[in-house]
Amino acid sequence: MADLTHATWKDYPTGKIPKGEFCEHCARFNVRNSTVEIITQDAQGCILMVKRGLDPQKGWWALPGGYVDWDETLAATATRELFEETGLRAKTMIFFRLNDDIYRDFDGRQNIGHCFIATGLSGELKKQDEEIEDIQWFSFDKLPEKIAFDHKKVIDEYVKTV
After folding, report:
1. Which of 51, 61, 127, 142 places its Cα 20 to 30 Å from the Cα of 154?
2. Cis check: omega of the bond before 56, within 30 degrees of 0
3. What is the pTM (predicted TM-score) of this model?
4. Torsion angle of alpha carbons 30, 31, 32, 35, nearest 10°?
5. How far apart are CA 96 and CA 120, in angstroms?
6. pLDDT grade for 130, boundaries at 50, 70 and 90
């Protein structure tokens, strides 16, 4: 049985759903179960957050970020997601921490998050993606009440380091 399973994995390394596509039966998206979150601060020390335009947690605030695509590094994902969601580019992405709490996603997906700190920002801050309703800078003492996923915990860990 193990040999048959391994042979199937070799033939279908990403399952029978093509990479980056939805299953026509269950609507599951074939993606790597890793995400990135990006911490970005302005000159006044405020943190950049995006208001989610889609479920899960539509209408809640989150750090910019998203799923790691197939054939993409974590840093490349962070760079891409920051630009797609905010219009900003970062000169550097510095790895901050891994987020692997099994309860971090409220829907049971158990994604593993990789948090980066973006520095050397350029570009014009503007909503670029239908996934985003709004973009705002928040001071650490005036964060929004509804923060998606485990991003409040991530922000709290970051505040301990600055």
Report:
1. 127
2. yes
3. 0.83
4. -150
5. 16
6. confident
Predicted confidence (pLDDT) per residue in 102-129, tens digit: 776 666 667 899 999 999 999 999 987 7
Residues in the chain: 162
| Amino acid identity at 66 | G
Cα–Cα nearest to 38, from 130, 119, 124, 106: 119
pLDDT tens-digit series, residues 49-67: 999 998 888 999 999 999 9
Burial bucket for residue 120 (CB in 10 Å: 0-12, 13-18, 19+): exposed
Residues 23 and 73 in one domain: no
Question: Does 151 lie in the same domain as 93?
Answer: yes
Could you tell me which residues are beta bridge partners of residue 41? 47
Letter string b/e over residues 18-29, b meaning 16 or more CB atoms within 10 A of that residue's CB: eeeeeeeeeeee
3-state SS class at 90? strand
Nearest alpha-carbon partner for 83 in 132, 45, 47? 132
Write out the residue range of the structural domain in which residue 82 sits. Answer: 31-159
Residue 142 exposure: Cα atoms within 13 Å on the Cβ side? 6
Q: Are residues 54 and 108 in the same domain?
A: yes
Average pLDDT estimate for 125-150: 93
Q: Are 60 and 152 in contact (CB under 8 A)?
A: no
Question: Are residues 123 and 43 both part of a single domain?
Answer: yes
